[in-house]
Amino acid sequence: MSAKAMDRVATVILMTFAVLIIGLLIGLLGFILTQGWHKLSLDFITSAPDLVNAGGGIGPQLFNSLYLLVLTMIISLPLGLGAGIYMAEYAPDNKFTQFIRISIEVLSSLPSIVVGLFGLLVFVTMTGWGYTLLSGALVLTVFNLPLMVRIIEDAIRNVPQNQKEASLALGITKWKTIISVVLPAALPGIITGTILASGRIFGEAAALLFTAGMSSPDLNFHDPSLSSPTSPLNPLRPAETLAVHIWKVNSEGLTPDARDVADGAAAILVIAVLVFNLSARWFGKWIYRKMTSGA
């Protein structure tokens, strides 16, 4: 077989796989949205669940998922960014660095249920906090940090070396070069890592069962206090996220319309992930143009 024929065959095979993956994704999204479309309403999104009668909503669970996302990214993004910069720019190539890389790979391959049990022991029991949003955010940080470190490190390493050398040749310090030249150029890759980590936060349930809990207090959205047990902004309260709520409703079946609630919650979760991903990519491109003086 000639080189051109082999190229055509390889192209057809790869295109076939790409079409199958896209078709599978569209079919999965279409099935989830069509099953839960009839439940999508403002009342369903904003009201609290009703464990006795039909017609409850997912308002507190949706808020808990978004709030947990914010808390987790506040903790994990600075840690991942700092670790990625160190591994890409400062870490020497020795046995200690190799040990760090092996540790990152081991952490990234741990099942979420194992990370959840670790969070139960450390963040729930040893700290005495109990089931809290903060415990869930910390265990999700442990869960997502290896992925973020590897992606941020690769994004920084992929910045062309001549850009760094040109900045250093002008007398700019290495740290200033990293902040002003390297990070803006690596921003698309950093945003990709952030989006991937955020998607795992939205969909994670196993680790949160042992840390954030499967129940939420009756929230008073007019109370902004960080210490009130009914305040939605209190990080030291138990919080049932949307993914955990879907599992709980399907497994326990306490409400008369459990299947409808689960279908509607799944549709809301998919839409939230899609909206967040598209918004993050748009915001990342806007920031990239601003930081690189692009048109």
UniProtKB/TrEMBL annotation:
CDD domains: TM_PBP2. One of its GO terms (biological process) is phosphate ion transmembrane transport. Residues 62-280 form the ABC transmembrane type-1 domain. It is a multi-pass membrane protein. It is found in: Cell membrane. Gene3D superfamilies: MetI-like. The chain crosses the membrane at residues 12-33, 66-87, 99-123, 129-149, 178-202, 264-283. SUPFAM superfamilies: MetI-like (SSF161098). It holds the Pfam family BPD_transp_1. InterPro entries: MetI-like, MetI-like_sf, Phosphate_PstA. One of its GO terms (cellular component) is plasma membrane. The keyword Signal does not apply. GO terms for molecular function: phosphate transmembrane transporter activity. Keywords: Cell membrane, Membrane, Transmembrane, Transmembrane helix, Transport. Belongs to the binding-protein-dependent transport system permease family. CysTW subfamily. This is Phosphate transport system permease protein PstA. The lineage of its organism: Bacteria, Bacillati, Bacillota, Bacilli, Bacillales. The gene is pstA.
